[in-house]
């Protein structure tokens, strides 16, 4: 049974989600904060070897080992619909939707060695402004996130991760 506790922002550490968050609470944490991440050097190595396979959409989720039981608990109920590569795009922020209606989709990123992710905590709650990007996601202007006074977070994947 999922716990009804609220998780503090301090559990969003720079390189991982605090191990205090158990697998049975991972979904609740994800719903509260809009993100969940874990370092994984094997994923970092795999990302480095994919090359044009990823660019041409030939890589499926099953190629990526999901060792963190908390990530498995979040991703497990979902069915993969498409997979593609996003290159570096500093200060660009993407979402699967800009409405506050549940769309029952998640975005799973695989990060190579030395990657970092920037996100605005709480941006998954409420409506956003944005425009459909060529990658099929919605690009949200950073100015809109700042207007909402959302705290910026940076996640570092020294050896890769998910």
Separation, N- and C-terminal Cα atoms: 25 Å
Number of strands: 5
Order of helices and strands: HHHHEEEEHE
Rg over C-alpha atoms, rounded to the nearest angstrom: 15 Å
> Which spans have pLDDT < 50 for at least 5 consecutive residues?
none
Task: Give the overall silhouette.
Answer: globular
Strand order of the largest sheet: 1-4-3
Strand content: 5-15%
Number of helices: 5
Chain oligomer state = single chain
Write down the domain tally.
1
For the sheet with most strands, the description reads: 3 strands, antiparallel
Name the structural class.
alpha+beta
Helix content range of the residues, please? Answer: 10-25%
Description:
The protein has helices at residues 26-33, 41-50, 52-55, 69-75, 142-147, and strands at residues 93-95, 115-120, 131-132, 138-140, 152-157. Helices cover 22% and strands 12% of the residues. It has one domain (9-157). It is globular, with a radius of gyration of 15 Å. The longest helix is centred in the N-terminal third of the chain and has 10 residues, at 41-50. The model has no long low-confidence stretch (mean pLDDT 83). The chain is an alpha+beta fold and 162 residues long. The chain has a 3-stranded antiparallel β-sheet with strand order 1-4-3. It has a two-stranded antiparallel ribbon with strand order 2-5.
